[in-house]
Amino acid sequence: MSKKIESHLSEERVFKPSKDFSKKARIKSMAQYKRMYRESIDKPGIFWGREAKELGWQKKWTKALEWKAPYAKWFVGGKINVCESCVDRHLKEGRANKAAIIWEGEPGESRTLTYRQLHREVCNFANVLLAKGIKSKDRVMIYMPMTPEAVIAMLACARIGAVHSVIFGGFSADSIVDRLEDCQAKAMITSDGGYRRGGVVPLKENVDAALKKYKALETVIVHQRIGEIGAPVKMKKGRDFWWHEEAAKVSSHHEPKGFDSEHPLFILYTSGSTGKPKGILHTSGGYLTGTYATCKYIFDMQEDDVYWCTADVGWITGHSYIAYGPLANGVTQVMYEGAPNHPDFGRFWDIVEKYSVSIFYTAPTAIRAFIKAGDHFPDSRDLSSLRLLGTVGEPINPEAWMWYHEKIGGGNCPIVDTWWQTETGAIMISPLPGCTPTKPGTATLPFFGVDAAILDETGEECGPNEGGKLVIRKPWPSMLRSIYGDKKRYRETYWNDYPGMYTAGDGARTDKAGNFWIVGRLDDVLNVSGHRLGTAEVESALVAHKVVAEAAVVGRPHEIKGQAVVAFVTVKGEVKTSDTLAKELRNHVGTVIGAIAKPDAIYFAPSLPKTRSGKIMRRLLKELVATGKVSGNVTTLEDQQVILDLQAQLQQ
User: Fold this and answer.
1) Whether 185 and 137 share a structural domain
2) Got the DSSP string for 392-437?
3) Cα(474)–Cα(450) distance, rounded to whole angstroms?
4) Are residue 117 and residue 45 in the same domain, yes or no?
5) DSSP characters for 127-154?
6) Band of the pLDDT at 612, cuts 50, 70, 90?
7) What is the C-alpha separation between 176 and 197, in angstroms, rounded?
């Protein structure tokens, strides 16, 4: 049965696009949206064929969609080179001298690459990869800071048909090992280091530590970002090569070959409810079509826009809305290397002012941090170039939405609150800025081709304000094709709840107007600052410490990060617990997974709340950290005193 959910809104106003915005927008009215949406659902081959045709295909497809649940093939028989569609095409269409990437490093240096210069760099690096024996379908790991070279490396892999797998630069050596072992990578592209909050992230050092455990990697190519400022970089002869030295040996001319539309483009690892990260596999033609169309319509990209997505390329947002979608649209975009609060919380607004950014896409986590830092930071900058704002990574609370609308958008900019996932490849639910009435807190309506619904446990569609599971009932071009090397897990994780339907793993409801409200994760995956972390991963890291006997990890609401990581730990034998031990365990998790996974709080407990069958009751722990008490059913607990003891500890 579905559960009635009371509205949690603190802001009931509806915000309609201005007439001036709508007049210039690609989608100008709700009537136009509804007409196009109906076609995209009823005639997906015609709708998506029209969108795909705008990209550079070397051979046209014979069939738009082949669907045998849960496996889809889009643009069957077509041949495309994703890199050619993102770069070469613009040279032929008059954008050769247009800025493609405007980059700013955290220390303050800047660089601009035109589409012609980007083309030259990508071709040159594609030849470096070929010279190192990298060929079509070989897996290449990328572990880099937010520099243009990260995007160049991704595009160069796509150009030669190699499959890239980008690792977030904040992840640890152990996280690198897990991913290397899973995809059996042949090469690694990294940097000597990157800047973050004034310090140096030792990327090459982390790679070296990982390669002590994973011996099969043949080649490491190192981009020099830090130079002599960081610690000297160790280079292993025959395995490690400097990017600039190898680039000088090869040509900057490369003719792109067309690959099958279903040719694998990248693997991106995302947290699962088990300890093992899932390698989400995306392919070429459908993925590019999805990211191209969402950029075009949701961000309403125009020829003179300066677009800035603040995500890292290590996450899906950086893939779809930095590396591929914007470049497929021929837009000028900003890339920034560092932290939003370095040297202070004015940094983002300085960049908006400096480069006259017109489209700004960031996370609710960042917005809440900006609110806390104070209005004087945006108030003292000229943000008048902005015409459109976006949010990504998690639902945005109404208070943050209103601040973003009034302080950053000056009350004039539409906000596109986007819902999507690593698995979906592109945005699935979002306002269209020229036509959709918005209300703070809702992602509003499905994008073209997205048949979204909310179902109860029996498979019946929920009514307004009834909570249930968010599902997608029909295939869409940018959907994941599998979990790399594990089709069984792919079927069981995403297609097991309702026959032929994709289960997103998020709870949601609709209101009477049909708007979708995303409630949050239904499984044991936390959303920390827009980053997905499996509770099992954090628990495994804690238990790997020599003093830990058992651990349970849950999420607690956090005003800045959305969710904070809270750990309950039982130590072995006569081990003494202390604040020092808690700090040691936090740092241990940071070493094993990465700083993003460090628990915000660790509570030591002689034992954890379990059922008589021995299962840890995380539901009770979640309630405890959120409210300070437990009101739910505790009759199945083996020892009810455990909860009382934990409750007393939290109250202290």
Assistant:
1) yes
2) -SSPPPHHHHHHIIIIISTTTS-EEE-B--TTT-S--B---TTT--
3) 7
4) no
5) HHHHHTT--TT-EEEEE--SSHHHHHHH
6) low
7) 23
Instruction: Give the residue-averaged pLDDT of 589-598.
Output: 91
CA atoms within 13 A on the CB side of 611: 8
Query: What's residue 520's pLDDT?
Result: 74
How far, in Å, CA of 438 to CA of 265, rounded?
35
What is the C-alpha to C-alpha distance for residues 118 and 304, in angstroms, rounded to an integer? 19
Do both 411 and 469 map to the same domain?
A: yes
Structural domain includes residue 13: yes
Choose the final residue of a domain: 452, 487, 519: 519
Bridge partners (DSSP) listed for residue 362: 391
Q: Which residues pair with 112 in a beta bridge?
A: 102
Q: Does some domain include residue 490?
A: yes
- Full domain range(s) for residue 646: 525-651
* Residue recorded with tokens 């040509």: 251
Question: Is 262 contained in some domain?
Answer: no
Residues sharing a CB contact under 8 Å with residue 31, sequence separation 6 or more, in sequence order? none
Domain boundary, last residue among 233, 257, 281: 257
d(CA 67, CA 3): 33
In single-letter form, the type of residue at position 202 comes to P
Q: Which ranges of 557-637 would DSSP assign to H, the alpha helix?
A: 579-592, 618-627
- Considering the domain architecture, whether residues 555 and 531 belong to the same structural domain is answered as yes
Contact 115, 91 (CB under 8 A): yes
Same domain, yes or no: 146 and 196: yes
pTM of the model: 0.87
Alpha-carbon gap, residue 579 to 429, rounded angstroms? 44
Do residues 129 and 232 both lie within one domain?
A: yes
Q: In this structure, what DSSP letter does residue 74 have?
A: E
User: Is residue 91 domain-shared with residue 178, that is, in the same domain?
Assistant: yes
DSSP secondary structure letters along 268-334: EEE--SSSSPEEEEEESHHHHHHHHHHHHHHS---TT-EEEE---TTSHHHIIIIIIHHHHTT-EEE
Phi, psi (deg, nearest 5) at residue 501: -120, 140
CB 252 within 8 A of CB 244: no
pLDDT of residue 73 exceeding 70, the answer is: yes
Q: Which residue has the tokens 């899906």?
A: 316
Number of structural domains (the chain) is: 3
Are 405 and 472 found together in one domain?
yes
Cβ pair 108, 132 in contact under 8 A: no
pLDDT digits (tens, 9 = 90+) for 501-560: 999 999 899 999 999 998 777 777 788 888 878 787 788 789 889 898 888 899 998 989
CATH code of the domain containing 558: 3.30.300.30
Element (H, E) at 538: helix 535-543
Contact residues for 397 (Cβ-Cβ < 8 A; gap 6+): 364, 368, 440, 441
Spatial neighbors of 138 by CB under 8 A, at least 6 apart, are 162, 163, 186, 187
Residue for token pair 């030669």: 160
Helix (H) or strand (E) holding 123: helix 115-131
Count, residues in the chain: 652
Contact 517, 7 (CB under 8 A): no
- Cα–Cα distances (Å) from 314 to 170, 323, 637, in that order, read 9, 11, 41
In a domain, residue 364? The reply is yes
CATH number of the CATH domain containing 7? 3.40.50.12780
